[in-house]
Amino acid sequence: MSKKIVFTGPPKVGKTTLRKIFFEGENPSKLLEYSLTPTHGQESILLNLKEKVGVFDLAGQENQRWYETEAKSVFFDTQIIIVVLDSSSPKEEIVKFTKKVLKLRDEITPSSFVYLLLHKIDLISKDKLKIIKDKVNDEFQDVNLLEIAYTSIMKYSFLPTFTLFTEILKLSLGIKKDENEKYSLKFLEYVVSILNIIDQNVVIPKEDIKRDLKLPDKIFNNFIEYLEKMEFLEASKLNKKPVISLTKAGKNYINEIVGKFSIESIQNFKNNIEESKFEEIPSFLGFLIADRNGRTISATEVYEGAFGLFLKYNDEVEKGNELDLIPMFISALEKFAEEINIMDLPGFKLEGSNLKIHTIKYDICTLCLFMRNDVNFNSVKKEVFAWFDNLMETYQDKLKQSIESGNMVYSSSLHSEAKKWLEQMNKNYDDLLINLKIYNFEHVKKLYQKLDELYLKIDFKYSMILEKLKKLKINLMESAMDNNFQSFKDIVKKIKELDS
Ligand SMILES: Nc1nc2c(ncn2[C@@H]2O[C@H](COP(=O)(O)OP(=O)(O)O)[C@@H](O)[C@H]2O)c(=O)[nH]1
Ligand SMILES: [Mg+2]
């Protein structure tokens, strides 16, 4: 059976543009230059991937028909609904339209996944974007099978949007998406919120917390169960009503760990990871070593200030360095995950759109390696693990000492050795890329641009070559999707041929 993707949204928001660029290989600059004729009814195309994927593009002028008459049958058996909305439209409209789609989804095709794209973010200011993000994320945080993305086909936003569409294609083919990131960032926010609410109220009915946090029952109960198991909470009854309060251990935990996170600091951290200038981030930024409770005992960056530059700490100095929070956060998550079995550990990945963190667990400590998001970690994994294993062995005693005493390790030999290694890793990795021994998204993007340039150079009468170029773009998407290095190399070869 073939798969199905449906684009829906008001008129003129960019649905057809996105479809043409990412599913048909059209040229972004051409599309921006010549306005497309509005879509009538629905236009559909069939992609020939591993399976056939039908892509339906619904005319926005006819939304009343799509949502209120039997024409809604167009949504039957859909794997993915892509809702495109203009990010500059009023918040109320965004919320209203999205709710309408979600209602229809639940009614007609409850298992389909909804991507909400707030599009054309190149046309709005950063501040405005933040306001919208807060509002929309808040409004839909509890909705299942929904992912919200902020997109544009212009400049810096092109790559993340491109990445998103490869994800969408993957999902449409049933290739499972990693849910870790979504869950993990939320996890921290929930734990912090729950413990802070209890702390502030001293004693509080469970129901009140649940209501305040607007959490679904199942998730809320999991959290409470987990916190009780950790002996952070104790349950009692007040006027026959079940209430909870913090235990001594719970209070300590708040003072020592959770108190250092504020919801704003988590949000800031999330935004900072997303906002740093992608091109400037070194492939391997640095690593932290933390004890089993998540206390950082050693930090090494590739050059001084590298973490500060790309993870931009909060100005509130007393709150401590946000970087120190990451291992705590990861360790808290790992404990939680062990309890309720939500993730495949220990290779836990925390991913923002620009950076990713890979954790490696040792007996006495955990290591968090920060990398640029497009680093092809599999290609260097062996080497990285071997080096860290060695480091752990060499410095085991020192690390043990500092874990016991609770102090940072001030070992200049560890630092200088590690810094040299990071420098070398960056250099080696760049060499591998240049020599096409491995590839990453940066390559895909460059090739994509190259194909665009070629497209512009070629006269319209050579339609055969133009078709070839379009096809190559789709192939490029596919090879990025499958991490297929051989087909990537073939594309490079074909481009060279066409270019000569
Ligand atoms: N600034 C900007 N304009 C865009 C973007 N995507 C599409 N557009 C423009 O938005 C207009 C409407 O696009 P179209 O795809 O026809 O919208 P549809 O009615 O939703 O199918 C066109 O002029 C596009 O060039 C974007 O990311 N940024
Ligand atoms: Mg259209």
UniProtKB/TrEMBL annotation:
InterPro entries named in the record: Gtr1_RagA, P-loop_NTPase, WH-like_DNA-bd_sf
Gene Ontology MF terms: GTP binding; GTPase activity
A single BP term in Gene Ontology: positive regulation of TORC1 signaling
Coiled-coil boundaries: none
Transmembrane segments: none
Keywords, ordered alphabetically: GTP-binding, Nucleotide-binding
GO cellular component, one term: lysosome
Name of the protein in question: GTPase domain-containing protein
Organism: Promethearchaeum syntrophicum
